[in-house]
Amino acid sequence: MERNDAQYRTWLELVGDILQQPADASMRHEEQLLDLLTESFNGACTTRNWVSQKWQDHVIACWPWDYLPVGPPGDFTVDATTQPLLRWYALTDQAKPQSLGRVPAAVAGNRLKQEWDDIVRPWGVSKELAIPAQMEDSDHSAYVISRPDRDFTDQELDLAFLLQPILAGLARHLALASITDNTSVPASDCRLTVREVSIVTLLSSGLTAQSLARRLRISPRTAEKHLENIYRKLDVGDRLMAVRRAYEMGLLTPPAASIQLNCSGHPPGGLR
Fold this sequence. Notes:
Elements lengths: L1 H18 L7 H14 L4 E7 L5 E7 L20 H9 L5 E2 L10 H11 L6 E10 L2 E9 L6 H21 L19 H11 L4 H8 L3 H15 L4 H10 L24
Helix pairs in contact: 1-2, 6-9, 7-8, 8-9
């Protein structure tokens, strides 16, 4: 229950952060959204997928960004003839969350499922849960959480149903479902997500990784993952260097004690 409460609070914070930002700032939240989905469902990775009119699947974004290979082997094409979960959506015209393990044999038999498992098992994505974000006209997009070992539980499917309206709304707000712009943030881009900036802010107050985990009510492993991502983006090796770099980049505001007073003896306007 405590973990669920922490998840719900994190999702509310994320939605609030995104809705306060202009839609053209969507890429700042891309990794944060995918990372939170991965964490919420104990996944190995999460992707944002767009499906063409021919029911061919295209991975537009992935987190962790280097989890999947660049492309499928050879001339292999992921479409409704090869991917059981995609076949289920194509044949049933459903728009609700679904896991690969729940696709009935009448839609995708054991042979097709085994062939797909043979292909993706080396990638660690043999178990999948799809949460459609847009299923209108010819535009189909979804978030797909994957892991290598076990199917998704009924409780996780219930969570997917709860999150689907949120993801659909965010997709429209951020224009994530649009195929007119397939650009993505390079892996070398050092921009931090809103959540990562908040973590750096906590680091600047002297919190350790364990204290950070307790403050955010996340596992120490998740806290370490966040720190690794921050260090990679800022090209630093520890939290002290990360804080220093954040100040240099203007991501953090200098402490109030270091702000010079104006001629009236008060801090500049707007500071409290």
